[in-house]
Description:
eight-stranded mixed β-sheet; about 25% strand; four-stranded antiparallel β-sheet; alpha+beta
Amino acid sequence: MALVQGHVTPGYRVSIVSRAEIDPEELRGFIGHKGEPWVGDMMDRWNDLGYDEYNLTGLVHKVVMDYDHPGPPELVAHTWIGMDGDTGLVGHVYTHPQHRGRGLATSLLHTLLEVFFKERGGRFLVLATGNPNAANLYKQLGFYPLSDDPEAKQVMARGVHPGFDPQRAFLGTVNRRTIHVSFEHEYYTNNGGMCVVEPIRRQHIGGCMLLLNTPGGPSPPKLPGLGVETGLEAESAILKSILAHNAGEMVCAVAVDPSNRRIHAIGCKRTGGPGDEVRSKAEVYAAASCSSASDMLFNWIQERVVMVNQGAVSYTHLTLPTKRIV
């Protein structure tokens, strides 16, 4: 049975489903037009038995209303939120062309937002879009563009201001108090200098996207080693960095506040043979208020690359979180 049933146009059914209710081959076929690394990312997430802990998947099915000739429901729309602590990433928003114009995506997003903010303790959401029509829909749902260029691909976000009820944040147009362009202070509060270093994982993508698109941060290029110039490329670049990290081609890691799972810094450095580590330094990008996290992450990456290059530690060891805290 679906976790949540939402309201939608008659003849359709909105559901938020668990991993056990997802047909991976049906999902692969439905979002296959997105190509890689997006399809591979969703399949890798589904293969994780802990999927339901950090993913929300919303589906819309066309329901056959002919009781004399019943048929299986047809998947016609999909949306997903990947979560880490109180930060989420919205992605894979897609409605089959034959079923557009019926408000299916809006109904599905409303349902997901309600669960994220009201039931999962979420406070911040981020997404990327290059579709002007989709951007307008997101604005109606309370998302705010973090880029000043309306013609470019946009990274958009929304969140809960301190002092406002997160359980009402999903109402969007009813409660318009949402994230604003100078959100850094409210996002990086109550850290107290406590961060832990973790090798990059899929759960980190949303927090990294917010970090790399923080207005007023360091000037571009932000992380040239990952192909991130302005921050707009962050989502695909981080997905590729995860693949490179898992393949042993680089060390990529984040400094994260364990109390709320917010990312304060991200960094990377290529691996190689013995002695190659002296040819370059680790690249680290951090919020302006997170210099201690930046220094800690830089040193951690430098040390780990030396260890890998000299064979002092197997690369698989780097996939485990460190317990080092500053």
